[in-house]
Request: fold
Amino acid sequence: MRIAMIGTGYVGLVSGACFADFGHEVICVDKDASKIASLAKGEIPIFEPGLVELVAANEKAGRLKFTTELPAAVAAADAVFIAVGTPSRRGDGHADLSYVFEAAREIAGALEGFSVVITKSTVPVGTGDEVERIIKEARPDADFAVLSNPEFLREGAAILDFKHPDRIVVGGGDARAQEVMRDLYRPLYLNRSPILFTERRAAELIKYAANAFLATKITFINEIADLAEKVGADVQDIARGIGLDNRIGSKFLHAGPGFGGSCFPKDTVALLKTGQDNDSALRVVEAVVAVNDARKRAMARKVSAALGGELRGKTVAVLGLAFKPNTDDMREAPSIPLITALQDMGAIVRAYDPESMDQAKAHFRDVAFCGDAYTCAEGASALVIVTEWEQFRALDFERLGKVMERRVLIDLRNIYRPDEVTRHGFSYEGVGQGKKI
Ligand SMILES: NC(=O)c1ccc[n+]([C@@H]2O[C@H](COP(=O)([O-])OP(=O)(O)OC[C@H]3O[C@@H](n4cnc5c(N)ncnc54)[C@H](O)[C@@H]3O)[C@@H](O)[C@H]2O)c1
Reply:
């Protein structure tokens, strides 16, 4: 099949490269000419494990191409995916659909023959109707179907997720369009990933409901962590104790500094807006958003408490800036409000992240960016682990202790056992690890 992927960001690039790897002919389109120029030279603009090799192999095989010329790519395609961004709209938190609608207008002008237009971007329920209307109005003659095919991949494990999804959701379309989707995903459901065909509106809502549910699970265990701290229990025991129940499941039960990233924050807020517009209260999600927002600055108070309640003039070393490991994505990273709050309290901040430092520089002022964890710790009164990169899991505490002003570790991801750290003379503060009463 011939595919045009409109938008070559985290989702468009990974999906395009994976579809090419299945044997389809893929043209990835982006209006960002510098992005396309670097891709054409073999430079990958994002950090995602395995992506450099996957793109190179499929480009070499002639199945994956990059262009800024949307019309030619769309005219030749059997399937046109819309994978442009849907960020929070400034001011009101609705999903900003201007990129989706602009792409729809451009696609309309270029359609030739029967084409399936598929929104892979996360879009509020009803967006497919509007995309269909835009195309119909511009091209009453066009033979096309608009489907919803939300993407569930996780940054940091994106290729694995795309190639081994728990399910593929396809919303809308007649038998002819659904056959195109079956052909596109055939290599996957041969591997037993079920394709779930639904109405288009249900597919659009499935994506938001899934993200809101996962955000709820994280927020739930975070609140239980706070309670555990107060009553002298360990949240990790609680997470294991409830997670072993198959009805609950162990994933997304890691207490930490609150969720961030390119999806959960914007998608939970956009879902609330959809609820309000339809006069349908979503109180659980409202609470999740509020609790999570408050949590990020609360983590700075935790750092302050570990240093006796006074941060002014003290140096704090922050390890991990990206919103999670194995990505360089800084969108809504918990490190941003945390570092800002530390600075508000008068702390001097040093920071290190293995991949996201270039992106991070745009988000902070007066932060000293360092080349590794040990340089970062120099002169620090506290070391704070914010993102659990593998390389932070086996730190040399003797070496750290020698360069630090004070031996204090605040482990916001609970990657260490307290005794591993305290035997090197460090004081240890995790999340939800209540001291024995
Ligand atoms: N990042 C994730 O982990 C993830 C996971 C699942 C779903 N999603 C959803 O997928 C969508 C894309 O997310 P992303 O993280 O890849 O975004 P992104 O910002 O990384 O990439 C979007 C790209 O689209 C391009 N673009 C915008 N308008 C265009 C147009 N008219 N023609 C061509 N290119 C255009 C931009 O230049 C940009 O390169 C969003 O709706 C997001 O919610 C993201």
In short: The two ends are 64 Å apart (CA to CA).
